[in-house]
Amino acid sequence: MSVLFAEQPPRPLAPLPWILTSFLVGVLLVFAPWSSLLWESNWLLQLWPGLRGLLLSPFVRGAVTGLGLVNVLLALHDAYSRLFGDDD
To answer: Do 34 and 40 contact (CB within 8 A), yes or no?
Structure first.
């Protein structure tokens, strides 16, 4: 048998950085659009003032928050399936 096809030992902590990163990016995307420090003083708003109305609209803020919630839920689902062996 070739060394390339040898069985690898299971690495239970391998997905941990991916899950943690996905969770933290999701939390950032949930709270950043509603923070005046992170969202309203954005460098994009200074370089392209035409984007100000679009980026500060509640619709765009809500869409970014929704993407953050999806990220958080996917990270939690992935962590749950890794911990409890759920194969969904």
So the answer is: no
The DSSP secondary structure of 4-49, one letter per residue, reads GGSPPPP-TTTTHHHHHHHHHHHHHHHHGGG-IIIIIT-HHHHH-G
Kindly give the confidence (pLDDT) of every residue in the chain, 88 residues in length, as a single tens digit, with 9 standing for 90 and above. Answer: 556 666 766 666 778 889 999 999 999 999 999 998 888 887 878 888 888 888 899 999 999 999 999 999 999 999 998 888 755 4
Question: How far is Cα 55 from Cα 39, in angstroms, rounded to an integer?
Answer: 8
Dihedral sign, Cα of residue 13, residue 18, residue 21, residue 25: negative
CB 56 within 8 A of CB 36: no
